[in-house]
Structure formats: structure tokens, C-alpha cells
Design goal:
Distance between the termini: 40 Å
Strand order of the largest sheet: 1-2-3
Strand content: 25-35%
Number of helices: 3
Low-confidence stretches: none
Shape: globular
Order of helices and strands: EEEHEEHHE
Largest sheet: 3 strands, antiparallel
Radius of gyration: 17 Å
Helix content: 25-40%
């Protein structure tokens, strides 16, 4: 395994997603947690799926920008929306799925799709989930 260049550290306390709290070791992230209303909880606080979506969207967006720079492709504006779904498995547990919606302006569709393919190869979240959860990419170029 390659040398680790950074380690993000977060600690969950209390009752985890059911009213607990999550905090990073540097204190920059300190959030209450709650089960979403859609899953029978009270809502009103963040949850692990939102945190995962935020991390993947941001990381993928950075990878997209890096691939564009490597390809010497200018992107006027871009957004990445990550949607993380939770579903019950046949075994009675829970699984995840993901949809990444990528919008790029001032670029042809084929070029946008090529950049997304490169970002998917570079992004650590994509690499961690590849083959483990269903992932759908929706790429919109304008």
C-alpha cells in the first residue's frame, strides 16, 4: 500500500445517527446528527449520507478540475451534485447507491463525458466505491 499523505479524523459520540454528534479532531467540523424524517427519525440535523454526499461531490469536483487542467480544457463553470441513496438489502441490512449529476458550461458533451471519466478514475471516493455500490453519472454540457 502507498504511503498515506493525509488522514481525516472524525469521532462520533452519543447515539450515532440517532441524536449523536460528529466532530473532527481539529474542531472544524462539529455537527449534531439525526435520522432523516424519510427514515422515521426527527430530522433537523445532518446524517452520514449527507456528509458522504458532501465529501464525494467536493472531491469529485476537485478531480474534475484537475483532469481538465491536465487536458488543457477550460471549463467556464461547473457543479457536481452527489445524491447518496439508502435502501434495504435482501439480507435485512442496508446498502448505498449514488447518483452524481455533473454540469459543465462552454464544453461539448463528448468532451464533458471524457473529463468525468477521468475524474472518476482519479477521485478517491470513486475508487473506494467502484464495484461496491451502484453509481450513475448524469453529465450535462452546455
Amino acid at each position: 500500500m502507498a504511503d498515506i499523505i493525509y488522514t481525516g479524523i472524525a469521532t462520533s459520540t452519543g447515539d450515532g445517527r440517532a441524536g449523536g454528534r460528529v466532530q473532527t479532531n481539529d474542531g472544524l467540523l462539529d455537527l449534531p446528527l439525526a435520522i432523516p424524517k424519510e427514515m422515521g427519525g426527527p430530522g433537523g440535523a445532518t446524517n452520514p449520507e449527507q456528509l458522504f454526499a458532501a465529501g464525494w461531490a467536493t472531491c469529485f469536483h476537485s478531480a474534475l478540475k484537475a483532469v481538465a487542467a491536465q487536458e488543457k480544457t477550460t471549463i467556464a463553470s461547473s457543479t457536481v451534485v452527489a445524491e447518496i441513496g439508502v435502501q434495504q438489502t435482501p439480507e435485512g441490512g442496508f446498502g448505498l447507491s449514488a447518483t452524481l449529476r455533473i454540469a459543465l458550461s462552454d464544453i461539448e458533451q463528448a468532451a464533458a463525458e471524457k473529463l468525468v471519466e477521468g475524474a472518476h478514475a482519479m477521485c478517491p471516493y470513486s475508487n473506494a466505491t467502484r464495484g461496491n455500490i451502484p453509481v450513475v453519472f448524469e453529465v450535462r454540457a452546455a
